[in-house]
Amino acid sequence: MTLAMVAQRAGVSAQTVSNALNSPDLLAGETLERVRRAIADLDYRPSQAARSLRTRSSRLIGYGVAPTPPSISTSVLDRFLHALSDSADSAGYRVLLFAAPVGADDEQERYDQLLRDHSVDAFVLSNTHRGDRRPAWLAKREIPFVAFGRSWSARDVGDWVDVDGAHGTAEAVDHLVAAGHRRIGLLGWPRGSGSGDDRARGWREAMERHGLPVRGLRQAAEDDAQAAQQAVAPLLDGANAVTAVVAVSDTLALGVYRALRERGRTPGTDVAVVGFDDSPAAALLSPSLSSLHQPLEEVGRACTRLLVHRIAHPRADPQRLLLPPELVVRESSAPRRPDGAGTAHTDPRPRPE
């Protein structure tokens, strides 16, 4: 089927069919509906190659995949990528994955190469961090982009969608306080990480809101279970040991599990543990891990929505969207027993076989 055949079927010009496909706001409602019926009746599909040559648009969105260390929580990004790809497809775009180098200069060179080759129309950024030069670099060149994550700098540039980590850890503290805990430690990432500092802020502000101490109750480790196992030791030992730990990732929470078992203690029964990410492993651990579920499917769809709007309206004001995570309560965050230890309870939802 060709565009001319659709025009003949609808009784309009070929230009009118082109407008219906590319600029539907130019047509009267009745004309647009007639053209769309003809397209549907003939099962007409525009040639993407021809459209790209005509419009100089590839309909491709670039997404750089950065190397990451093995982690219990990396699989959560699969949900984001699937939602991003699916929503982009519905909007008439495809996501082009490319290997993002570690160095900032090398990464910007890769972005520049993709633009020079006219391979992409826009970018989705992730792994944003303090000092990230990509948003300003793209904004200066007026390249449409949206970031999964805030820029974490005084000069916030461009559109972004992010998960409200502070809200999540505050919700975890509220849950643990309601369960009877008063000494609630935080196992976070080293200071300087934008998202890590944000999650730590939520814990600290919630503790202060409840009138609970925070001094000496924060420890940090890289996102590695073995490092977490060692780092959490000061929170578990001594007369003033904590009765609960909020970890800023499920990987760190796994380290807490190992540290407790190393001491002959049981997560949930002796010390409550809450993770962050709700990775597939969270429900499979024994006891199952309470964790904060990130709405990554919604993040992916929102990234596409904001990016398509930016492509169509390059001068529009920046849009920012902060989405709250949801606490999934499982066995590891039990109510406190009168004797000071915890009592495990089971999430009523069925656990995976």
Automatic annotation (TrEMBL):
Which keywords, in A-to-Z order, does the entry hold? Answer: DNA-binding, Transcription, Transcription regulation
Specify the domain of life of the species encoding this protein. Bacteria
Keyword 4Fe-4S belongs to the record? no
- According to UniProt, the name of this protein is Putative LacI family transcriptional regulator
Spell out the Pfam families in the cross-references. Answer: LacI, Peripla_BP_3
Ranges where the record places region Disordered: 323-353
Question: Which SUPFAM superfamilies does this UniProt record tie to the protein?
Answer: lambda repressor-like DNA-binding domains, Periplasmic binding protein-like I
Occurrences of domain HTH lacI-type (ranges): 1-55
**Keyword Transcription annotated:** yes
Q: Which InterPro entries match?
A: HTH_LacI (IPR000843), LacI/GalR-like_sensor (IPR046335), Lambda_DNA-bd_dom_sf (IPR010982), Peripla_BP_I (IPR028082)
**What Gene Ontology molecular function terms does this protein carry?**
DNA-binding transcription factor activity; transcription cis-regulatory region binding
